[in-house]
C-alpha cells in the first residue's frame, strides 16, 4: 500500500508531501511509526492524521477500517511537543501543595507579622493539603488515561486554575491576619465539624467514583464502557459533582470570597467537561441510561 501524507494547510513544508509504503493490512500506528522513521521529530503522539474528515484513531486496528486504500492521501497535523497526561496532573496539583504551606507557615514575611491561626485557618489548611495529596496519589495509582499525551504548552494553561486560584489567591485570602484567632475568622466547633463531615463524605465519594472508572478500563487499553454504581446512576460525572461539594464545604467553612470565586470557576469548567462527556456517552452507547443528568442530580 502506497500512501501520500500531506499537510492540512497550504503553507510550504519542507517535510511534506511524503510518500509512505506500507503492507496491505497496516494499522494507523504503523503509519505513524513510518512517518516518525522518516521525520524523527514527529513521534506518533505528536501526529494527528485525518482521512475524509475522520481522525485516524490508534485504537482502530487497520487503515482499511476507514476505507483507506493504496494511492490515497492522508492529511497530517503537527500537534506540537507532547507531555504525558500523568505528568501534567502531577504538576497541576503540586502547585497548591507548595504554595499553601508557604502562606500558612510564612505569615511573618507575607503579612508582615506572625499570625496566630484560628481553628478555621488550621482546619482549612489541612483540608486543602489532604485534597491535593489525594489527587497526586490518585494520579499515580488510580487514574488510567484515555489519551497518553497532551501538548506541552497546555501545562501553563491547565496549571493557572490550580496554582493561581486555589493556590496563591485562596492561600493569601484564608491565612491572613483578618481571619486569625480572636477575629471574624473564628467559627463554632459544630460549624467546623459539619463542614469537615461534608468534605470527608465528598472526598471519599470522589475517590470511589475514580476507582469505579479505573476498573472499567483494563490496564494498557483505552476501552470505554458505561459506568454504573455509586453516583453514576444519577449523573454521568459524579466525580466532578463530589469535587464541587468538597470545595463548597471549604467555601462555607472559610466564608472567603477567594474560595467562592474558585468554586464558581471550578463549577464552570467541570460543567463544560461533564456536558462534553455526557454527550459522548450518549452518542457512543445507544443503551445509555436516559434519566441521567450530566453533572448535578436531577438538575443539569
What is the terminal separation in angstroms?
49 Å
**Multimeric organization:** single chain
Number of DSSP strands?
A: 7
Uncertain stretches: none
Indicate the mean pLDDT: 93
| Gyration radius, rounded | 24 Å
Strand/helix succession:
EEHEEEEHHHEHHHH
Strand content: 5-15%
Total DSSP helices: 8
What does the main sheet amount to? Answer: 5 strands, mixed
Shape: elongated
Strand order of the largest sheet: 2-1-5-3-4
Domains counted in the coordinates: how many? 2
Structural class: alpha+beta
Helix content: 40-55%
3D architecture notes:
The protein folds into two domains: 2-79, Roll (Ubiquitin-like (UB roll)); 83-284, no CATH class. It contains eight helices and seven strands. The protein has helices spanning 28-38, 85-105, 107-110, 119-141, 154-174, 189-216, 238-254, 257-284; strands spanning 2-7, 18-21, 47-51, 54-55, 73-78, 82-84, 149-151. Strands 2-1-5-3-4 form a five-stranded mixed β-sheet, with helices on one face. A two-stranded antiparallel sheet has the order 6-7. Helix 2 (85-105) packs parallel to helix 5, helix 5 (154-174) packs antiparallel against helix 8 and helix 6 (189-216) packs antiparallel against helix 7. The mean pLDDT is 93. This is very-long-chain enoyl-CoA reductase. One of its GO terms (cellular component) is endoplasmic reticulum membrane. It is found in: Endoplasmic reticulum membrane.
Amino acid at each position: 500500500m502506497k500512501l501520500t501524507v500531506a499537510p492540512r494547510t497550504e503553507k510550504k513544508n519542507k517535510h511534506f508531501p511524503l510518500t509512505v509504503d506500507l503492507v496491505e493490512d497496516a494499522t494507523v500506528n504503523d503509519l505513524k511509526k513510518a512517518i516518525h522513521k522518516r521525520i524523527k521529530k514527529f513521534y506518533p503522539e505528536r501526529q494527528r492524521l485525518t482521512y475524509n474528515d475522520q481522525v485516524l484513531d490508534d485504537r482502530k486496528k487497520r487503515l482499511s477500517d476507514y476505507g483507506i486504500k493504496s494511492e490515497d492521501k492522508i492529511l497530517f497535523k503537527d500537534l506540537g511537543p507532547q507531555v504525558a497526561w500523568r505528568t501534567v496532573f502531577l504538576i497541576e496539583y503540586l502547585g497548591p501543595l507548595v504554595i499553601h504551606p508557604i502562606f500558612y507557615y510564612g505569615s511573618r514575611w507575607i503579612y508582615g507579622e506572625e499570625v496566630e491561626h484560628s481553628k478555621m485557618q488550621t482546619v482549612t489548611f489541612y483540608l486543602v493539603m489532604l485534597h491535593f495529596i489525594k489527587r497526586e496519589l490518585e494520579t499515580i495509582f488510580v487514574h488510567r488515561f484515555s489519551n497518553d499525551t497532551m501538548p506541552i504548552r497546555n501545562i501553563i494553561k491547565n496549571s493557572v486554575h490550580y496554582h493561581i486560584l486555589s493556590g496563591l489567591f485562596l492561600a493569601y485570602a484564608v491565612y491572613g491576619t483578618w481571619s486569625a484567632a480572636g477575629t471574624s475568622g473564628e467559627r463554632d466547633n459544630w460549624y467546623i465539624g459539619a463542614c469537615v463531615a461534608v468534605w470527608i463524605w465528598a472526598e471519599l465519594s470522589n475517590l470511589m467514583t475514580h476507582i469505579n472508572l479505573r476498573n472499567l478500563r483494563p490496564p494498557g487499553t483505552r476501552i470505554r464502557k458505561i459506568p454504573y454504581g455509586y453516583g453514576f446512576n444519577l449523573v454521568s460525572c459524579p466525580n466532578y459533582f463530589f469535587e464541587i461539594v468538597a470545595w463548597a464545604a471549604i467555601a462555607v467553612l472559610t466564608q472567603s470570597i477567594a474560595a467562592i470565586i474558585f468554586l464558581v470557576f471550578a463549577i464552570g469548567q467541570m460543567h463544560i467537561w461533564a456536558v462534553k462527556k455526557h454527550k459522548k456517552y450518549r452518542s457512543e452507547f445507544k443503551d445509555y441510561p436516559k434519566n441521567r443528568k450530566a453533572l448535578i442530580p436531577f438538575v443539569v
